[in-house]
Amino acid sequence: HNTMSDNDVEFVYVDESSISTYLKCPSCLKTYVEPVIRPDGSRRCRACALFDDDENDLVPVTETILLGMLDDLP
User: Is 48:27 a contact under the CB 8 Å cutoff?
Assistant: First the structure.
């Protein structure tokens, strides 16, 4: 479900197959980019969530451990 626009960044990882499923979006199956929490409590990439939800209904993920783990991926 991820569509690329001029403002989106495509990340390339050293060993994507070794990345935990907890760090991957269940919609696009890629590593989270700008993860958000949907009204039902699930997490998605912002771009994926916008297919089903209004921007105003999305809450940015602020969990330091999740964001740190994403930032540390080689």
Answer: yes
Tokens in use for 33? 């980019």
Reported in sequence order, the residue ranges of 1-74 that DSSP labels E, i.e. its strands, are 35-37, 43-45, 59-60
| Local structure of 24: helix, strand or coil | strand
Tokens 């980019």: give the residue.
33
pTM for the whole thing?
0.79
> Residue 35 in 3-state DSSP?
strand
Which residues, listed in sequence order, are joined to residue 44 by a DSSP beta bridge?
36
Q: Given the structure tokens 């060993």, which residue do they identify?
A: 15
Is residue 38 within 8 A of residue 57, CB to CB? The reply is yes
- Residue-wise pLDDT for 3-56, tens only, equals 444 446 677 888 888 899 999 999 999 999 999 999 999 999 999 999 999 999
